Amino acid sequence: MNTEFNFNDIIKKSVLNLEAFRSLSYVDLLWGLLIALLVGLFIYWVYRKCYRGVVYSHNYNMTFVLMTIITALIIMTISTNIVLSLGMVGALSIVRFRTAVKDPMDIVYMFWAISAGIAAGAKIYPVAVGGSLVVGAVIWWLSRRKENGLPYLLIVHYDEKAEDEVKRRIRKIHSVLKSKTIKKSGIELTVEIKMQGDNLSLMNELSAVDGVQDVVVVSYNGDYAQ
Q1: What tens digit of pLDDT does each residue of 142-194 get?
Q2: What's the first-to-final CA gap in the chain, in angstroms?
Q3: pTM of the prediction?
């Protein structure tokens, strides 16, 4: 009976005792939202400056700011009452993020925004601010590192008589065959190469070959071209 009384007493206090909602002061609320907003804007700035994908989306970047603030609000809400926390978990379990994430780095920014929002909502402000500064510095440093050649797609249209010469010139550099299409009008060859900056010497060499119709170089980023 004593155990049952204690259990019922806990349930009553959690459900009926509205004093639990007063444990979060307006000062804590304002500070939490302010820190979440500042960290969200910092994530927004880092994403804007370090984005290296194909097409930058301003609306998608804005979601990181809102995600940080909303996550902080959720943590503030569920921290005031155990029943609310259980109900919030049940409500969030039916939410599905159905937008296709094309760049793996976007997932990193999502987790960053959620983690910072959790820290701000839990009033662990040093973790929210300090952790965000460290993550932002690491992303900035990695995005500014110079790579040994950037990947490009080299597309060459040529006649059959020029095939041997085209292959000989392409073999001079590291390349990966992507596709080869043989048509009645000629041959289309697509290979992945790496070039430093805007070095177009290979394009000039190929275009000078007798039988080459045109040479195109396209910036290549994983599965996407721009």
Answers
A1: 887 755 556 778 888 888 888 888 888 887 777 778 888 888 778 888 888 77
A2: 71
A3: 0.62
DSSP 126: H
Q: Which residues make Cβ contacts (< 8 Å) with residue 54, sequence separation at least 6?
A: 102, 221, 224, 225, 226
Domains and CATH numbers, the chain: 2-143 (no CATH), 150-225 (3.30.70.260)
> What are the C-alpha distances in Å from 127 to residues 107, 117, 132, 134, 214?
20, 10, 8, 10, 56
Beta bridge partners of 216: 155
Convert 101-125 into a string of H (helix), E (strand) and C (coil). CCCHHHHHHHHHHHHHHHHHHCCCH
Does the CA dihedral 71-73-75-81 come out positive or negative?
A: negative
Q: How far apart are CA 124 and CA 54, in angstroms?
A: 36
Cβ atoms of 20 and 10 closer than 8 Å = no
Is residue 135's pLDDT more than 90?
yes
Give just the sign of the alpha carbon dihedral 223, 217, 194, 198.
negative
